[in-house]
Amino acid sequence: MRRTLRVAWLAGLALACAAVQPVAAPERYRLAKSGEHWHAAGNDPVLEDVRLRYPEFMRKVLDPAEHGDLDIRPVRHDLEHVPVDRRNFDALNAVAISYFELNHRAQAEPGGPGYFDNSFQAAKLLALPWKAYGLVPDSALRDAILDFFADAGSGEKLDSASTAPRLAGIVASLEAKETDDGRLERIRDLSRQLGGGGALRPED
Length: 204
Fold this sequence. Notes:
This protein is mainly alpha-helical. The protein has one domain. It has 9 helices and no strands. The chain has helices spanning 2-19, 46-53, 55-62, 73-79, 86-108, 115-135, 139-153, 167-172, 181-194.
């Protein structure tokens, strides 16, 4: 009887473990499979994590009543940190969430009172991973930054389809910062998918 109960308990434990989907390590771009939104990707609580690390920055991003320049210094500092560790990837994901949020807010009210402010702040955020790509020659971080640009240009996130083509030139300009053949090919493919065009540099 005791043996039967133990076998049943172990079988139940195995089923429970199989049912729980493990969350991948956070040292990556975490929003690629989050669908239209950017609060979580499956059971990966991306927004919750970055709000803990950047409470004031994320508070201002997520409050529609807030306007004016964002203080990007905390995320820029972490995104450009060397040696690369989790803080770089948390900063990248915070930038991604902020870009999607502000871009969505701008596109949802074209010509409205917050359109230009939100569009400008979203464009300024794009410059952060672009600059970090050249400053930090770390393979994992560079791959994650390309994952972000691919996601931002995919048109999957709410109201991002109309702004995706503007990323083509930004991505194309990364060629000048890259020497790895595999990433160079990815940059060229991604730029072509986004619409090609000349290499436009975001504001430094």
